[in-house]
Amino acid sequence: MRILLTGSKGQLARCFRDRLPEDWELIATDSASLDITDSKAVRQMVHSFQPDAIVNAAAFTAVDKAESEKESAFATNAAAVAHLAQAAREAQARFIHISTDYVFDGNGKSPYRESDPTNPENVYGKSKLAGELLALAAYADSLIIRTSWVFSEYGHNFVKTMLKLGGEQESLSIVNDQIGNPTYAGDLADAIVRLLKETTPPRGIYHFCGNRPVSWYEFAQAVFQTASQLSGTPVPQLSAVSSEQYPTPAARPAYSVLDCHKIQNEFGIAPSDWQKALNDMLRKA
Ligand SMILES: NC(=O)c1ccc[n+]([C@@H]2O[C@H](COP(=O)([O-])OP(=O)(O)OC[C@H]3O[C@@H](n4cnc5c(N)ncnc54)[C@H](OP(=O)(O)O)[C@@H]3O)[C@@H](O)[C@H]2O)c1
């Protein structure tokens, strides 16, 4: 299988590269070699490589920055996704795109299903929702996987930020009124490889995330407990605070738990065992 991967220096892309079956051919492009907002470059790349599948791991992921850089967020997360989907359709390639739990407003009380109404609260969520809609409009066979709270050994993420801050400060205040599912990027990458192996290509929207919802505060507790058990990392004093006490430029959903039954029932793909993944990741660190 020939894969064109975008955003190849990001967390998901690097995990995907680590898990690529040996006999698959990969063109891994980063923002320097293929800026996905350049529709002409996208079309040329797809035309010359003729991939069997395009995996779009590129995104404008800076949630707070998106509030002041709306145009860039929409260019990358919406318009560019349409170009990629269109190019995939023209090449008769599969198109796999990643979206987010932040397409929901978080007012729900039970895990969000794929069919539940969306209502993003911030610019990032709005741009990602626009990307979903544009992808499906350009190419109905697009496969969109919504995920949440992604962490890995690569790039920037909550786990790495916590450990860095924990080494610098004796106490940390962490938001306790936003609930979501941490997801290990390697497990998401495994799920993508698995879906690419399906002979009847899946299409439409699927949710994939971690198996146990927590607040950011509880996630931080899990990070420090694991790090402390594995390597004696000192645990800072953790204080649970409300979103009101910790204002950020972008509002975030209070409850963005995704229901992952559809992907599990149809393909036997279990949710990410994020606590195990966290343990494995910190053991290797
Ligand atoms: N991280 C999360 O918590 C989270 C949660 C829910 C959903 N998601 C979604 O999951 C997917 C993967 O996220 P991730 O955490 O792996 O992201 P990431 O680590 O931030 O990586 C994103 C990559 O996209 C690249 N990129 C940005 N603009 C680009 C452009 N115009 N052209 C080409 N590449 C570009 C970035 O390159 P530069 O650094 O060079 O700009 C970066 O390497 C994204 O679709 C994201 O929206 C993530």
Automatic annotation (TrEMBL):
Keyword terms: NADP, Oxidoreductase
The protein's name in its UniProt record: dTDP-4-dehydrorhamnose reductase
Catalytic activity: dTDP-beta-L-rhamnose + NADP(+) = dTDP-4-dehydro-beta-L-rhamnose + NADPH + H(+)
SUPFAM superfamilies reported for this sequence: NAD(P)-binding Rossmann-fold domains
Keyword Oxidoreductase: yes
GO MF terms held by the record: dTDP-4-dehydrorhamnose reductase activity
UniProt domain RmlD-like substrate binding: residue ranges: 1-284
EC number in record: 1.1.1.133
Coiled coil: none
Protein family (similarity comment): Belongs to the dTDP-4-dehydrorhamnose reductase family.
Function recorded in the entry: Catalyzes the reduction of dTDP-6-deoxy-L-lyxo-4-hexulose to yield dTDP-L-rhamnose.
Pathway(s) where this gene product acts: Carbohydrate biosynthesis; dTDP-L-rhamnose biosynthesis
Details of cofactor binding: Binds 1 Mg(2+) ion per monomer.
